[in-house]
Amino acid sequence: MKPPKLTKLELQIMEVLWTRGPCAIREVQEAFPKRNRPAYSTIQTTVYRLEGKKTLRRVRKISHAHIFEASISRGEAQGRLIDDLISMLGDRLQPVMAHLIESRRLTLQDVRAAEKALLALEEQDGKEEEE
Prior knowledge:
By secondary structure, the protein is mainly α. The protein has helices at residues 8-20, 25-30, 40-52, 74-88, 94-102, 108-130; strands spanning 23-24, 56-62, 65-70.
């Protein structure tokens, strides 16, 4: 099942849960920088939306506070974002790769690691065809 699309605020909330582990809504809110901290009710509404999307779940209740944890991994959420980006570019990777190179965010070490991963996948595909 494909992870749902997440808004910027939803991703920020998920990042708190991925980093800190299970949290109450108040703890999630307090993890935001004080200067631009969303209201408690905004975080609460967004957490309940995330629960509806099944990206997080309630794990227990302490007094009146529900404790939530992520039910999808950071990698799953990032994969969805990347798939959406590539889809917006007409499924062409060239613009993404060109930008990463020009902005110096893609290093030779990254390319070598990607090549190694591709070779491993190719080898794995070869073994599956033999079976």
